[in-house]
Amino acid sequence: MIVSALLTSVGINTALCVLFFACYSILRKQPSNYKVYVPRLLAEGISKRKKRFKLERLIPSPDWVAKAWKLSEEELFSLAGLDGVVFIRTITFCLKIFTFAGIIGILVLLPVNCWANQMQDFDLADFADNSLDVFTISNINSGSNWLWVHFFAVYIVTGFICLLLHHEYKYIASKRISHFYSSKPQPHQFTILVRSVPTSSGCSVSDSVESFFREFYPSTYLSHVVVRHTSKIRSLLNESKNLYQRIAQLRSDPSQRRHKLGDCFGQNDKLVDHYRKQLEDIEENVRLEKSEASLAGEEARAAFVFFKSRHSAATASHMQQSVNPTQWITEPAPEPRDVYWPFFFESFMRRWISKLLAIVATISFTISFLIPVVIVQGLVNLDQLEVLFPSLTSILTIKFVTQIITGYLPSLILQLFLKVVPPVMRLISSIQGYISSSNIEISACNKVLSCTIWNVFLATVFSGSLLNKLSLILDLKAIPWKLAVSVPAQASFFITYVVTQGWTSVLSELFRVIPLIGSLISKPFTSHEHEIDVPSIPYHRDVPRVLFFGLLGITYFFLAPLILPFLLAYFCLAYIIYRNQFINVYAPKYETAGKYWPIVHNTMIFSLVLMQIIAAGSFALKKLQPASAWMLPLPVLTLLFNEYCRQRFLPIFIAYSVDSLINKDREDQKDTGMAEFYGKLVIAYEDPALLPIQYSSNSDSLITPLLS
Amino acid sequence: MIVSALLTSVGINTALCVLFFACYSILRKQPSNYKVYVPRLLAEGISKRKKRFKLERLIPSPDWVAKAWKLSEEELFSLAGLDGVVFIRTITFCLKIFTFAGIIGILVLLPVNCWANQMQDFDLADFADNSLDVFTISNINSGSNWLWVHFFAVYIVTGFICLLLHHEYKYIASKRISHFYSSKPQPHQFTILVRSVPTSSGCSVSDSVESFFREFYPSTYLSHVVVRHTSKIRSLLNESKNLYQRIAQLRSDPSQRRHKLGDCFGQNDKLVDHYRKQLEDIEENVRLEKSEASLAGEEARAAFVFFKSRHSAATASHMQQSVNPTQWITEPAPEPRDVYWPFFFESFMRRWISKLLAIVATISFTISFLIPVVIVQGLVNLDQLEVLFPSLTSILTIKFVTQIITGYLPSLILQLFLKVVPPVMRLISSIQGYISSSNIEISACNKVLSCTIWNVFLATVFSGSLLNKLSLILDLKAIPWKLAVSVPAQASFFITYVVTQGWTSVLSELFRVIPLIGSLISKPFTSHEHEIDVPSIPYHRDVPRVLFFGLLGITYFFLAPLILPFLLAYFCLAYIIYRNQFINVYAPKYETAGKYWPIVHNTMIFSLVLMQIIAAGSFALKKLQPASAWMLPLPVLTLLFNEYCRQRFLPIFIAYSVDSLINKDREDQKDTGMAEFYGKLVIAYEDPALLPIQYSSNSDSLITPLLS
Fold first, then answer.
1. Which residues cross the membrane (chains A, B) (predicted)?
2. Mutate which of B323, B331, B356, B669 to disrupt the A interface (most A C-beta within 10 Å)?
3. Average pLDDT over residues A146-173
4. ipTM of this model?
5. What interhelical angle do A503-511 and A3-27 show, nearest 10?
6. Which of B323, B655, B658 sits opposite A216 (nearest CB)?
7. Mean pLDDT for chain A?
8. pLDDT higher than threshold 80 for residue B231
């Protein structure tokens, strides 16, 4: 790719950025879009819908940028929890390392690449026609001593990143602990989940749980709630919710509707009556099912067990309860709001099999995802495309079209396909038998990350057929060499990838394209102000995205330092936009208290080792053997550093220690409100399906319009 | 190799077997050898040294075989603990699977190999000159449908082995639990070890431990013992022991000595006085060191902490104690007799570094061990040797010499080198920071196992230079193919390996060659009857040895079924001989309650998967693609089976469950002797170096000869 193609791409995207920012500034002020752009503020009652029209609504203003910029970490913590803080710190972490790497890359490596020992002259006169390869390491002669500059850059940047990683791990671990110390008593701290409860004949699951914990935890056991099979009730409730909404739609604005539909008014009333009858039937069914569910027969072999102290709950969740390790399996309970009720596998075998299925599904999805990647590669290698479709030759000779196709289209197609990955992976994780949304999203996050790295990075890098790729991967010895050959060759693709995929993805996050379209379509039919659905940030989509750009930056910083300014622009955009979204849009659905950080840390270590392997391969390829050999201690040191961090910090993210648990428990003993808390504890883990019906045919909002 | 060379080797070894058995029968009856052959009985006082000579002493008798054969599992358990039972069950397990595989192999596979579609005619007339390859799978034509017989044999044997593995795992797990239930209160069940104890200034380790456990385990904490640095005292005590023995030697039989040395008598007395003075000096030093060691300055940052119940000790050892995971590291304490005092690393970093060093040492030792393997290979390939050393040609033309060299010498050399592996690996494991001999031996067992498999099996199989080998291993895709080519080619080597290495190793175990030689050399200088050193069985040497033959059998049963009868003979010998040694020689030094079984299980699974990969490669090599393809589900199923066993049984071998701990604790509460037990508990974990001096200059045995 030549410089002008890149400039085209950058130009289009910069224009898009400005346009999107301006549009957003205007759109977010329209009361009709409040539900899309400030649902959180609406739900909290901070922002009221102003009906009066003002001119300033139509003038773009940058005040939201200033607001997002000024947000302190404490405010962010109160808004988005520790997970939000960790997410933003991931972005600032990337900003820090790429500022540092950028200074080295642009001021030292780029001039070296361009002017030292050039194979290809950097042509200042005809700047735009230069190949991008002029700016990469490929431009340096074999055996040139200038490569030692790259060598030291790799060492220095690795050292800097490791230092920063250690600092961040320590900081977030301390945040996690202080968050625990400062938190009020929370139900999940006093609760464990027990699964695979064995039952003898004539003895219900509830009795079994009661007698087991009364026997072995006599002084600390409080009570328990048995989980019930409620899939039927859940589907009925969904049906009733749909019906309710349909009725509500029909009733929503009778005057307007009458005006529009005219003669259909009678029919409308008939429909409503029909739906109401259906709703009543379903309610009857739900009531029947509920009374059945409360019988012993519908008990799942799982229960939430409550304890009097955090320490005893933690102890019970850590220890193997039964001689048979496949029975009485305990684990810490998730927050009540975080419980994932639909897939409540209680038996050991079923969970095991579903886990295996999930692994198989993940691997086959990841591999089959190569197809779009191959399409994208075809577009980058236009020559191949011309051979395949000779009819395109005439179009492809137009310079602008070629530049669009090679510079913009490939990564746009890839981006569209990548949009599918997070929801699919979340689905796979949800059938894996996790009991909480947080665990599902953490697991999905890992899956999305490996799928993205594999497909976008490794598969793009190792060009060739699918089988060819697999056989390359199996030949471990050849990997550094292959990486060194193919990674620098893909530099121009990834530079445009950052500009297109990166910038547009973060802009579409700001613009909330899909919710906006959804709201535009559904607007005529809804008018319920009371029901505002505040979304939560899909960490399993956004964490891998940010981390993937981190990976790109780390691996390419010494190969093609030109990528760094574009990456910095991406992270700056992300920094402002995500902070803005935390203020206006997202409300946390759960609190893992920083459990995403180990994923960030591991990915950074992986990126570093990958970069070091590529560096070793590159120096060998450039026939600078000593540099290649001296590169080998670096991955070893990096992995040792990682192992140290794993020992030093990881346990803090897995469980709380005895001293903090007991200290916290003792604090509570002074608290007079604990009796009340224990009372509430028992009802905290009620299955939402068993709560009183929310969408009833007798509910106010359905009756009100009838009266009006 | 041809049949006659094998027969030579078998002949030599069978003769050796008979000879050794006869010699053993005679030697074990000589009172002077009691210390070598029945130290256990001597120590228990069952066998007395009979001074009177009887003729029957010189006639070999097989009564010991009958005695070993009749031993029941309960008796074995009482003699050698659960570990001994597990070891013998490993041998019977191998006997069972190789009987089953042997029936299939000899009755079905061997005839198929010999007569079906032979490439090379099996020549009954000149039986001895047939190549051993006639009996292997190599003899079958490419694409022959007879290979399906091998295919089904692999499936059937895999199924049989998995069934048996499941049964054994279940049986040994139940034995472990019932052993726990039937055991009396033991100190290590109530004790944890805490390391990396942080100390503040002006506060001793002891105070720190006391205050921590008093605060967080107020109701269950009993007391503690701080570990002290005693390496100086230990070396002084060793010195004093040596001096003591030297004096005792000089004094042992003054009359005899006077007779022999005549004029030296005066000098002898002088020497004794000199040594006594030295001994007194050392004792003085020891006393000084001991009083110093009891001061706070010599405290290690580690302590044994005692609890009132098993459950609370288990809880404390399972949970992370401190917010900083590198402090207050707890683990279950080993049995008092099992504690390994010399390397008591207390700090987190020091243990971490020593662990890394141990890994590096293991890997480099394993790789450098290839040198003897290459020598052995040279002997097998005589042609290469002749090229290297032309002078040998004349000797090598003699048929008998050639047969000895190719059939016997290579595996003998390998055996001698392999003798070095277990002690070296034990040394490496001991610096790794384990606190108990049992853990050291379990870790050494794993190391010896991987070293043996790597060096003897994989490295012998992949012939070529060291670098060549490494590059082959890195090319994952080519491995099944390479294995399929080279493993059958080494069949004859491994058949003779079983006959020589296997049979002689187990015979030398019976004969106790090294202790016998040691006793013959030291006999003239010792006469202390009271000091009998009952050895313990070195599991880290014997478990890998037995398992390696299991691996050989499993991988070769379908390639060269001829190996099976020799293997069965080996396991029969091992069965009788090890049972005999448990009765007469070894006393258990520790009780891991069956923790060696998971190692056995894992090795069997590894063997199965290796065999299946070789099978898939062989069928592909023989151009029977469908059989090769249908072989692929088998390793997947085997690994799934292993994963199931890991989930179902492994936790039982790691820790005891809450219900068994609490039930056992409740049993104790009825016991009136618990107060006394708690009292003893505190002194159970005294460092032996701090106990009263055993070899004192004032002790009776030194004074008695002076008075006589």
1. 6-27, 86-110, 146-166, 356-380, 400-418, 448-467, 546-578, 599-621
2. B323
3. 94
4. 0.83
5. 10
6. B658
7. 82
8. no
